[in-house]
């Protein structure tokens, strides 16, 4: 397994990847070349080198070469694509009340996904066993082999130590998760590298990988707490020195007063402007036995019906989030600011409130080209971010080397 980023070092040194092979693989995976001749033309590699690398990848079950359905004179042309046997990505997006699991192919296409009604307060062993079982079910349904999972990505709603692959002192609703080796457990279950990251980081990465989205991109998730993720202009997640970057929910709110936060302090943004704070302030239960997301649904209904207390509470939350967003715009000067989480589904009220504060508080130089919008991927943003993170690892030189070693043992 890869050293760093949440999983241990490979047990034996990996061999060098043959020269030209990553370029050949990248051209096929990206769809920019579908034949040996096209690869040679676009890569500048000799046809003999291309032929050797393609044969190598086909023999390992990573690429497949099939006859095109097009009608042409003479032999039908042969088309190169990723083989279904090349492997699968598994992604788990944990939230306090309900989670999502998904599998994707190595082209980044989601093959199957589903929601898992398991609460984080059931403890990490129960939660991880449940989501692992669902992932195996998805793999079986799609005809994918569990032992050909190339990487597992786990998203957690709280501070994360990416190097150790675990949560670090999460606040509220996650008993037993502090320091629990989540990456190691999931990695062992699928015998694959595993990485754990913060949910806002992966949601930011998911949004940043959409087409025609400008970076740097700042994502603010407004859920049970308030968190932020930043993707740089180079497409990297900014995590800070210890992975604590973006934990903005514990900045003191302008109107925070003495509201007690789960971190033990008072007046934090999460204590007054999170989804949890809004529904609790309105006396709405967060969940029921019949509906784990009851609070989300009930608040949306009350806002849709122009219930005055609900609309006022949402606008107050938008003002507090806007103050934090303006501060972050000053600090990082993003090109795109995206709002996500349950409150972002109430787009007009929340979005207009945040925009008003940001444009009022931030200087024109920081806002003149800034786009402020709601998430386009919705609840699946973290899943897409996890896929993007995994694919970068899988197609890194070390990931390709590991893939070749694994498949050589099966050939």
UniProtKB/TrEMBL annotation:
Gene3D superfamilies: 3.30.420.40, Winged helix-like DNA-binding domain superfamily/Winged helix DNA-binding domain. InterPro entries: ATPase_NBD, ROK, WH-like_DNA-bd_sf, WH_DNA-bd_sf. It holds the Pfam family ROK. It comes from the Bacteria. Belongs to the ROK (NagC/XylR) family. This is ROK family protein.
């Amino acid at each position: 397994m890869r050293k760093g980023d949440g999983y241990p070092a490979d047990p034996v040194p990996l061999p060098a990847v043959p020269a030209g092979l990553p370029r050949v693989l990248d051209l096929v995976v990206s769809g920019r070349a579908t034949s040996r001749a096209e690869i040679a033309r676009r890569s500048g590699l000799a046809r003999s080198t291309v032929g050797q690398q393609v044969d190598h990848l086909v023999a390992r079950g990573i690429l497949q070469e099939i006859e095109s359905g097009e009608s042409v004179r003479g032999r039908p042309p042969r088309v190169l694509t990723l083989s279904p046997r090349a492997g699968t990505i598994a992604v788990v997006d944990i939230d306090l009340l309900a989670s999502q699991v998904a599998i994707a192919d190595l082209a980044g296409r989601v093959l199957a996904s589903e929601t898992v009604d398991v609460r984080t307060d059931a403890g990490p062993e129960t939660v991880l066993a449940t989501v692992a079982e669902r992932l195996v079910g998805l793999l079986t349904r799609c005809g994918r082999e569990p032992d050909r999972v190339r990487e597992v990505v786990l998203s957690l709603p709280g501070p994360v130590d990416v190097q150790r692959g675990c949560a670090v002192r999460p606040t509220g609703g996650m008993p037993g998760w502090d320091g629990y080796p989540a990456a190691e457990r999931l990695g062992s279950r699928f015998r694959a590298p595993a990485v754990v990251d913060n949910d806002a980081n992966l949601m930011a990465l998911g949004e940043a990988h959409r087409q025609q989205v400008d970076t740097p991109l700042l994502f603010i998730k407004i859920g049970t707490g308030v968190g932020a993720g930043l993707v740089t202009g180079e497409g990297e997640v900014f995590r800070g020195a210890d992975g604590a970057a973006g934990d903005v929910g514990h900045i003191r709110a302008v109107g925070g007063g003495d509201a007690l936060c789960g971190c033990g302090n008072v007046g934090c943004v999460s204590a007054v402007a999170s989804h949890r704070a809004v529904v609790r302030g309105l006396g709405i239960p967060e969940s029921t036995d019949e509906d784990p997301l009851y609070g989300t649904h009930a608040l949306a209904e009350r806002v849709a019906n122009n219930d005055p207390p609900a609309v006022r509470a949402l606008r107050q939350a938008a003002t507090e989030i806007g103050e934090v967003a303006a501060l972050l715009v000053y600090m990082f000067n993003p090109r795109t600011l995206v709002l996500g989480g349950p409150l972002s589904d109430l787009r007009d009220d929340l979005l207009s409130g945040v925009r008003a504060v940001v444009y009022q508080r931030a200087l024109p130089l920081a806002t003149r080209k800034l786009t402020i919008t709601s998430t386009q991927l919705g609840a699946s943003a973290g899943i897409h971010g996890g896929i993007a993170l995994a694919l970068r690892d899988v197609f890194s030189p070390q990931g390709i080397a590991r893939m070749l070693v694994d498949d050589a043992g099966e050939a």
